[in-house]
Amino acid sequence: MADNDDIPFNRDFPLKPGVVEQVRPGVRRVLCNNPSPFTFTGTVSYIVGQGKVAIIDPGPDDEAHAKALLDAVKGETVTHILVTHTHRDHSPNTPRIKAATGAPVYAEGPHRASRPRFESEKHNPESGADRDFRPDIEVKHGDVIEGSGFALEAVATPGHTANHLAFAWAERSINFVGDHVMGWSTSIVAPPDGSMIDYMASLEQLGQRSEQHYFSGHGPEIPEGPRYVRFLARHRRAREASILHRLGKGEADIPTMVRAIYIGLDPRLANAAGYSVLAHLEDLVARGIVSTDGDPVIGGTYRMA
């Protein structure tokens, strides 16, 4: 099954790093120069409002990007810094922006895993988590962050990380969805940081909301967001079906499943694909459909229950 056989991906995103682009009244964006197979052309930071503004996702530990953001708001007052989640391409620049503006930082909380780590799991220092991050103000689902001319509702969207939030500007039918939904690719869900059970529930929740225009942590805007979310959910269910189809032929380890399911995969993404398969397997084991010896871990062997 090809990776994008059912999702209308859009990889047309000509924005250049450091350039300020006004995409809507009251919404500007600035791209960080940190392209990779995981970040596409780089992390997108957003500036919401005019005169008194909020900055969403200051980005990675990158002085040039911090300068570009601060230049973009010269003569304005930054009243809020919002962080969707604590991956190293989204939150580590926060201290620079806070030091320059004095604005309080709003987020769900520090980084945490979606579930306790199993005894047999090694701690993965490459998980990309920003473990130093602490918000000034912890935000819960449904909290509204009010600024001058904008009101952003926090929408808890765990799955990609346990502490992932989207910020919905209902009045403008806009949702800043972080990495939960991306127009250029599917999101990585890698246990124990991520959880497929949580991810699917969060997709369903977003799909029931009224905001149509999604602005994502990477890549272009997504029009008809709730419709796009349904494509993503269907794609994940098809991925689950592919895993079950492979296990129907006999027990298998995760690398075997990745080779069977992800045809033509960029080899640099094989490890991430393995964790995505693990996220599905965790869910399938919890539901009693698939079994494994011991905990469902990346090195395990899996069979139909």
UniProtKB/TrEMBL annotation:
It comes from the Bacteria. Residues 104-134 are annotated as: Disordered. SUPFAM superfamilies: Metallo-hydrolase/oxidoreductase. Gene3D superfamilies: Ribonuclease Z/Hydroxyacylglutathione hydrolase-like, Winged helix-like DNA-binding domain superfamily/Winged helix DNA-binding domain. InterPro entries: LACTB2_WH, Metallo-B-lactamas, RibonucZ/Hydroxyglut_hydro, Sec-metab_biosynth-thioest, WH-like_DNA-bd_sf. Residues 41-218 form the Metallo-beta-lactamase domain. Residues 116-134 have a biased composition (Basic and acidic residues). This is MBL fold metallo-hydrolase.
